Automatic annotation (TrEMBL):
A Pfam match: Methyltransf_25
Domain Methyltransferase: 45-137
Protein name stated in the entry: Class I SAM-dependent methyltransferase
UniProt source species: Methanosarcina acetivorans
Keyword set includes Magnesium: no
Length: 210
């Protein structure tokens, strides 16, 4: 199954029409920061898109590097950070390559609604890459669509969106099996989150790199 051209989406679709693009940080991320489960540190935002969450974290005192496979998204993110007077670094990199573009390691890794864009056969490669850019003991927070989510009104684990992307809807056991060889899972649960339209059920996982 072929992946959609995400860069073309950022080139052609207005930001307000891209369903994963929200200027407001997710409540689950805000709660993580405000509860001090994660404190300001050297952070990598994987699949940063237009940079909204990276900018939020930088405003909370985090030293943030945002990474995305879309050069257009990275250009937008850089401009957004400059407009808001926030210091972030943004890098174009392929999550399913070797992430050689990322030269450092980090204390906190974060991806929001990226993993459901990665098909099961490629997920171990991705998780190994995440592990490689995190220091031992670093926290990793990931959120992806749950198979319990009815939003798209279709049956099956793979579902196609109006933008032409194909998403994979996971079970908690799949995420546990994916993370466990590389991370000690601290929290793994299905939660309901707000979307631009309606809400979604997602699997939220907070873990620590082995």
């Amino acid at each position: 199954m072929k992946y959609a051209d995400i860069d073309k989406i950022y080139q052609k679709v207005p930001l307000e029409k891209i369903p994963w693009n929200s200027e407001m940080p997710p409540d689950a991320l805000v709660e993580l920061v405000q509860s001090e489960k994660v404190r300001p540190c050297k952070t990598i935002d994987l699949g940063c898109g237009a940079g909204n969450d990276a900018i939020y974290l930088a405003g909370q005192g985090f030293e943030v590097t945002g990474v995305d496979s879309s050069p257009t998204a990275i250009k937008i993110a850089t401009e957004n950070a400059q407009k808001k007077g926030v210091r972030c670094r943004f890098i174009v990199a392929d999550f399913l390559g070797d992430l050689h573009e990322v030269k450092e390691t980090f204390d906190f890794g974060y991806d929001w609604e990226l993993l459901h864009h990665i098909f099961p056969e490629d997920r171990e490669k991705y998780i190994k890459n995440v592990c490689n850019v995190l220091k031992p003991g670093a926290l990793y927070f990931s959120v992806c669509f749950s198979e319990k989510d009815p939003q798209f009104g279709e049956a099956g684990k793979f579902q196609k969106t109006k933008l032409g992307t194909t998403l994979y809807f996971s079970s908690e056991s799949e995420i546990r099996d994916l993370l466990s060889p590389y991370f000690v899972i601290q929290e793994l649960k299905t939660i309901e989150i707000k979307a631009i339209v309606g809400s979604h059920y997602v699997i939220s996982a907070l873990s620590k790199r082995r």
